[in-house]
Amino acid sequence: MADSPRLADVAVAAGVSLATASRALTGRGSVASETRERVLRVAAGLDFRPSAAGQSLRTRSTRVIGFIVPDISSGFYANALKGAQHRLHAAGYQITLMDTDEQPERERAALLALAAGRVDGFIVCSSGGDGAVLRSVEQRYGLPIVCFDNVVEGVGAARVTLANEAGIKLLVDHLASVHGHRRIGYVGGIESETSGGERLAGYRAGMVGSGLSIDQRWVRSGDWTEAAGRAQTGILMDVDEPPTAIVYPAADLALGGLAELRARGLRVPADVAIVCFDDSDAAPLLDPPLTVLVRRDREIGDLAASMVLRALEHEQAGPMEVRISMSLAVRRSCGCTPNDAVDRAAAMEPMTSDGGADVA
């Protein structure tokens, strides 16, 4: 016996998003009359029959959005939450926060628990699972999902990410063109995640673009923790002809790396220059202050919340993608003097990325 048609089948056949199909069938939310009629015709033609339980759950709005992140103790996620919360509260929505501790199984449990009638949509930074549960939640419940930072292919009404590749390339370019480094190392995070994979690609593109060869011994990866930054930096510095500069794609990795370099009696930047993708409250207070990319974390959360509201309240032709651009904050860890830092930071224009819609 053939499987019964799903909401996702209706959405595809009608040429609309899952959220639009759900609104058209339940009568909940704003849908153009022509679109509603098309969805209803398609549903009738497919003999689509939503389950009584599912229909009951989805016709009852909760005015709550699920916000799922790998680690709320991270300043990035905490600030993104504040941005999303501000936007959602203004629209009359509340947030339910779930911290997955970077464990895909916890992410799965959080999604399934909240999808069962507790939220109207999701803002998710995935912990790196295979995305099957996210797809299932979309297809079964018609809930809009907005992914940010680490996205999952084929999932979501919208995506909000940083200009990961272009950002790391900017850091490599600075080390090579301004300070003349030829041996530039990289201590990265989880490569299977969007941010990890794209930032590593940015390092490789920066090296090639600067005419530099990549010694695989100079490229290390682990997780995103300070402990990993310290351990991987130690391995990197033990090779013959170690790098004279290191790029870190996250603040905790840079802090761990700095601790390891100090433990070895190496001076920053005299012996090893370092730069970091992530800014943090501590970055300008360190000795030496860290050269970083300046992010707009709250704006990321605000944009993600705006997109989930748009998916709930309006028709949407297809997934949207926005990449947030950043600017370079030049400090002494790369070898710039305080005066250099002021001059170069003032001269540096915000960067943009390729693909999607850029937000400067």
General description of the model:
The protein is an alpha/beta fold and 360 residues long. Helices cover 44% and strands 16% of the residues. The chain contains 13 helices and 13 strands. The strands form 2 sheets. It has a 7-stranded parallel beta sheet, with helices on both faces. Strand 8, helix 11 (251-263) and strand 9 form a beta-alpha-beta unit.
Q: Outline, from the CA principal axes?
A: elongated
DSSP helical segment count: 13
| Overall mean confidence score, pLDDT | 85
Main beta sheet: strand number and arrangement?
7 strands, parallel
How far the N terminus sits from the C terminus, by CA atoms, comes to 53 Å
Derived structural class: alpha/beta
Radius of gyration computed on alpha carbons = 23 Å
Number of E strands: 13
| % residues in beta strands | 15-25%
Proportion of helical residues: 40-55%
Point out poorly predicted stretches: 52-59, 345-357
Spatially, the strands of the biggest sheet line up as 2-1-3-4-5-11-13
SSE string, helices as H and strands as E = HHHHEHEHEHEEHEHEHEHEEHEEHE
List the keywords:
7-stranded parallel beta sheet; 6-stranded mixed beta sheet; 13 helices; 13 strands; elongated
Would you kindly provide a brief summary of this structure?
The protein is an alpha/beta fold and 360 residues long.
Describe the SSE topology.
Layout: H1 7-14, H2 18-26, H3 33-46, H4 52-58, E1 64-69, H5 75-90, E2 94-99, H6 104-115, E3 121-124, H7 132-141, E4 145-148, E5 158-162, H8 164-178, E6 184-188, H9 194-209, E7 219-221, H10 226-237, E8 245-248, H11 251-263, E9 273-276, E10 291-294, H12 297-313, E11 320-324, E12 327-329, H13 338-347, E13 357-359
Parallel strand pairs: 1-2, 1-3, 3-4, 4-5, 5-11, 6-7, 6-8, 8-9, 9-10, 11-13
Antiparallel strand pairs: 10-12
Helix pairs in contact: 1-2, 1-3, 2-3, 5-12, 6-7, 8-9, 10-11
